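Researcher: Here's a chain I'd like modeled. Treat it as a single chain, no partners, no ligands.
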Amino acid sequence: MNVVVSTLNAKYIHTCLALRYLKSYAEPEFPIQMKEYTIKDPVMNIVSDLYSLKPDVIGFSCYIWNIEQTLPIISMLKKVLPQVKIILGGPEVSYDVSYWMERTNDIDFIVVGEGEETFKHLLAELQGEQKYHLVFGLAYRSRTGETIVNPPRPKLDLTTLPSPFRFNEDLEDLSKRIVYIETSRGCPFSCQFCLSSIEVGVRYFDIEQMKKEILFLIANGAKLIKFVDRTFNIKRDYALEMFQFLIDHHQGCVFQFEITADIMRPEVIEFLNEHAPEGIFRFEIGVQSTNDFTNELVKRKQNFSKLSRTVTLVREGKKITQHLDLIAGLPEEDYDSFKKTFNDVYDLEPEELQLGFLKMLRGTGVRLQAEKHDYVFMDHAPYEILSNNVLSFSDMVRIKQVEDILEKYWNAHRMDQTIKYLTSYTFPTPFDFFQQFGTYWEEQGWSKIGHQLEDLFQRLHQFLVEQSVQDIEIIESLMKYDFFIHHKYKPRKVWWNSSLDKSERAKLLHAVSESPTLISESFAQLGLREQELHKHVMLDRVVFDLDTYFDTGVVLRKPTYLFVYFDPTETKALPFTSSQMI
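Model: Modeled as a single isolated chain. C-alpha cells:
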C-alpha cells in the first residue's frame, strides 16, 4: 500500500511537525512518503506531483491557513485517481466533522484529534478487513453514504512516541527551515477563542529524550527551533532545566517559545538575563486584551501588572527578543477599549507587536456563543470577524489600517528612532499615530501600489508635513539618521534634498581626513584616508545633538553634522556626530 502524507505550509521555510509524527508512528509497518507544499503553489503542480507518486492513500494535515486551498486539490485528485483514499486530519477538521464530510464527497475519512494512533489503526484496516467502526477517533462514510463518527480515542502516552526528527530527507534542509518541536501537549488555561482550551490537562514528553532530539537537530544544522508548547513555562523547574540545557548547547541556534508572562517568576528572568547569550531566545507572549471584563468573558486569567513586570525585566536585560500578540474583536471590547489595549501594550516597547483579529475557530467557545455578541464573520477559513455588537465593520477597517502601518514601520524596524519620537511626543498616543497615518495611507491609494525603502520615508514625511506637526526639523533629523543606519552599503541617493552641496561636502571630508578627532576618537581609530571618506561616508546637517538625545532623551537644539561610515568589510553603517565643525 503506497501511503503519502501531505500539507500546504504558509511559507517554504515552515515545516509540518504533524506529518513527521504520523510517519514515525506508522513506520516500519506502513512506509510513508511526506510531501510538503505551500499555499502559493499552483493546484495543478501539486496534483501532478502527487499523481506521479501513484498513491493508494493520501492524508492531508489541515489548518485554517490551508483548508480552502486543500479542498480543490482533493477534488482534482479524485478525478484523476478515483480509487485513492483521502484522509483529512488536523485542528481545522477535528470539529464540526459532519460539516466537512457533507461539504464534499471527496473526503473518505477524517482523523479526529490526536492522530498518530488513529491514523496507523486506519491504515491497518484499509489494508485488512476494513472494520472502520473499530477505529476510535475516526469519522467515515457508511456504505449508504451516511457520516459515522466513532468515539474519541484515549490520549497517547507521549513517552511512547518515536522521534519525528530522524528522517534522512529532512537533514539537508534543516539549516534553511524552521524546525518545530513540542515538549508537551495541552494547555492549562481555558481561553474561549483558542482550540487549546478544549483539551483538558497538560502531558509532557520525556525531558531527557527531548534533549537528545535537540542535540541531534543542532548537530545537523538547525538554526531556528520553535517550541510549539502552548505555555512553555507552566512548570518552572522543567522550563529552567531546559533553558539551562539550551544555554549550554545552543551553538548559535535560536529558540522561540510561547510563554505566559504573568506567571513567570522574577528569579527565572534574572537567571536568563545573567546567563543567556544575547539573541538565542525569543519569547512570544499573548496579551490579547487588557480589558478585564473582556478577559473575564473569554475565561482568560491575566494579571497585566505582573505581565508588564515580566516584559519590562526581559527588555531591560537586553538578552531576549519579545513578540507580543493582540486580538481585536474580542467580546465587548469596542474601538476605544481596543485603543487602550494597544497603547497599554505598545508602551511596553516589545520588539514586535502583532495586531491580529479574532477568528471564530470551529469548536471554540466564542464561536458557540457568537449570537450572544452579534458576531458576523467569514463563512470560510480563517473565519475572521467582520463586526459584532460593539465593533462595526467600519471600526474593523480602521483597525486594519493601524495593523498595516504597524507592520511596515514598527515591526519591520525601518525607522525605530523616528517612530519612538512620534509616538512619545508628537501624537497624543501611539494608537493615534498609527491610526491617523494608516487612514492617510489608505486615502492616498498607497495600499494598492508597492514601495521601496525610500518611499516609506517620503510618504511618512508627506503625511507629517500635511499634518503640520510640531518640531518637524527634529523629526526630519531622526529620519535621516534612521535612513542611513538601515543601509549595509552607502546608498546611491537620499530621499531628501541635502543641505550640503558638493564643494561644501568635499571641504568637510578633507578637514576630517586631516583631523579625524573633530568627529571623535573612535572615528579617528578607523584610520580612514580622504579617498575612503569620499567613497564610504555620507554626511548631512541635523538640527539637534543626536548623541545627547540617545543618551538622555533630552533634545538639545544645536546644529550638528551627521557622519555615517559604511564599512565595506562589516557591511554595516557606523554613525558619528560632530558639532565642532559647525
